[in-house]
Amino acid sequence: GVMPELSDCSASLTKEDIKNFEVELNVKIPAGMKNFYLKFNGGMPSPYCFQPQDEDLDRMEINAFFPIKERTNAFETIEVIAKDIWSRNLMPCNLLPFAMDSGGNYYALNLKNKKIYYYVTDEWDENASREYNFETNTRYIAQSFNYFINHFIEEEE
Question: What's the pLDDT score for residue 156?
Fold first, then answer.
């Protein structure tokens, strides 16, 4: 796998910006994620496919990484998106959404174990509890942000 290049990024970040981001959301993000965001502040990845650690899972498409601090033309910031999703109880507060696919499902950092999960948004069961929905909609895909960001793959012809 490779690390993707991002285009249509937001304004470059400083380490101070990232610190402020962590304080504002009361989160701690791993060094690998900080370093990636210092390089690319959100944007569209190329290549855009990720191969999950579990070989049985199909490759996944990442449409965009959300920026920090300032929105891009197409996407709001992680701060705005996370606060909105958390306030509406659409995702557990220990998941920090940082990217999405074209179907509106999210890629999220688990703030407790620092692993990466795919969070499905279109399979909510109105008759089930929120906890049940949170659990069934969360799919483990990578042991760390570093693993995630280094296992993008070219589309097969």
Answer: 67
Instruction: Name which of 93, 99, 88, 91 is nearest 137 in CA terms.
Output: 91
Query: 3-state class of 35 per DSSP?
Result: helix
- Among 28, 32, 24, 21, residue whose Cα is nearest residue 111: 28
Global pTM? Answer: 0.95
At CA 8, angle to CA 72 and CA 63, rounded to 5? 90
Say which residue the tokens 């996370």 belong to: 82
- Coil, strand, or helix at residue 95? strand
Do residues 103 and 90 make contact, with C-beta atoms less than 8 angstroms apart?
no
Angle between helices 78-87 and 15-25 (to 10 degrees): 10
Count other C-beta atoms under 10 Å from residue 19's C-beta: 11
Matching residue, tokens 């504002």: 24
* Secondary structure (3-state) at 21: helix
Domains of the chain as residue ranges with CATH: 5-153 (3.40.1580.10)
Q: How far apart are CA 114 and CA 27, in angstroms?
A: 11
CA–CA gap between residue 5 and residue 154 (Å, rounded) = 12
Calpha distance 40→68 (Å, rounded): 10
Q: Which residues of the chain have pLDDT under 70?
A: 156-157
